[in-house]
Design goal:
The structure holds two protein chains of two kinds. Chain A is an all-alpha fold. Chain A contains six helices and no strands. Among the domains of chain A are: 40 residues; 90 residues. Classes of the chains: A mainly alpha, B mainly alpha.
Chain lengths: 202, 188
């Protein structure tokens, strides 16, 4: 029990005003038991500070954080899923396909009958459909491949961390066991010395 | 510390007016201490990370309710405390709050970060902290690791200062006894 004018724990934790701190300091200088108690408290505080802060595993993503902003490709892909996105994408692809179709189409044969025009329109429509389908398939495949790669990497990371944690736990147990073993040996030694000195004094 | 509080207050005022970049800056300043506080009381990295995210999201939504920007830290930690206890309750709905122990009890307290101290000491400290009650441990974390004043701790934990002091001092006495043999070998 401390005889200090103020609680030594308040002093240690800087919860005392300056005049009160000075009173405690003056008291501790002249009181060995309070000095010892304060030393023990300081050592406890120092021991506690051995447990350092960890780095945060990943930054907290927030609304407009540039780091977490989706890539240009992803933004484009997500725009396809928006309410107006599909319509816009279809129109864009249709335009591209039309341009490609016109540019690569062979020179038109001389018109002989009205049926020729009908066939040509069907062909264009089919080409357009094929072009859109192929474009969408390629985009989906690229996205899926990217996600598969990312998932694989995540799984690898988790497995690695798991292995490291297991190793750390194992090491901790070994340390603890070693510490207990040494404590036990020290205790046995002290008992042996005590009994030997008792025997010698008799 | 004072400059930081002033800067925080400025950022909070800007964020409350809808400046997301100001809030991002606040998040980057507070995410590490917040994560470590939640890590110490939950004892689980994934939970701590998820809760940290939740805390900042909730804080952003409620920034307008923060009357004094200078009290941002205790206000933020109050949200974190509530979020953590809500999670504990969800996980064990059949248990009373006072009977619940977070997953950080026992030997589950995380030992990490760079430290100049021997690993053995860190492990023993983690183990000693794990033996405290959750309330005592949270008091130690808020005071020793996060440096809050008693009044701020009372605000965060929603209890009187006398209760805060009682929890903390009981914890310190227990830790003092628990760590005494180690102090002699590892610290002094």
């Amino acid at each position: 029990m401390s005889c200090s004018p103020f609680d030594l724990r308040d002093y240690l934790l800087r919860e005392l005003a300056e005049p009160q701190r000075r009173q405690v300091e003056a008291h501790v200088r002249s009181c060995p038991s309070c000095r010892l108690e304060l030393d023990r408290l300081r050592l406890t505080q120092t021991a506690l500070s051995s447990l350092g802060d960890e780095e945060i595993p990943r930054r907290i993503g927030f609304v407009s954080d540039k780091i977490f902003e989706p890539s240009r490709w992803r933004r484009w892909w997500e725009s396809l899923h928006g309410p107006a996105g599909l319509g816009f994408a279809s129109a864009a692809m249709l335009s591209v396909a039309l341009i490609v179709s016109v540019a690569t189409r062979p020179a038109p044969a001389p018109r002989v009958a009205g049926t020729v025009k009908t066939v040509s329109e069907d062909e264009i429509r089919q080409r357009l459909d094929r072009g859109i389908d192929a474009g969408v398939e390629r985009a989906v495949a690229a996205i899926e491949a990217r996600y598969a790669q990312r998932t694989e990497q995540l799984v690898k990371d988790i497995e690695l961390r798991d292995r490291e944690e297991r190793r750390a736990i194992q090491a901790a147990y070994e340390l603890q066991a070693d510490y207990q073993q040494r404590t036990l040996q020290a205790y046995k030694r002290s008992q042996y010395v005590a009994s030997a000195s008792d025997g010698g004094s008799r | 510390m004072i400059f930081r509080a002033v800067e925080d207050a400025d950022l909070i005022q800007r964020a409350a007016k809808g400046d997301v970049e100001a809030y991002n800056l606040l998040v980057s300043r507070w995410e590490k201490p917040m994560y470590n506080y939640l890590l110490r009381i939950t004892g689980n990295r994934e939970d701590a990370l998820d809760l940290t995210q939740e805390v900042f999201l909730k804080a952003y939504r409620n920034l307008g309710k923060l009357a004094q920007p200078g009290r941002f830290a205790p206000w933020l930690y109050r949200i974190a405390h509530n979020e953590a206890y809500t999670m504990f309750r969800k996980r064990r709905p059949e248990t009373g709050v006072e009977d619940m122990e977070p997953r950080g009890t026992g030997t589950g307290i995380a030992v990490g970060g760079s430290s100049v101290f021997p690993l053995e000491l860190s492990l023993s400290v983690a183990s000693a902290l794990g033996r405290l009650s959750e309330e005592q441990r949270e008091a130690v974390v808020l005071k020793i690791y996060r440096g809050f004043k008693f009044e701020e701790m009372a605000e965060i934990l929603d209890c009187p200062v006398s209760t805060v002091k009682s929890r903390l001092y009981t914890a310190l006495d227990l830790l003092k006894e628990e760590l005494a043999p180690l102090e002699a070998r590892g610290v002094s």
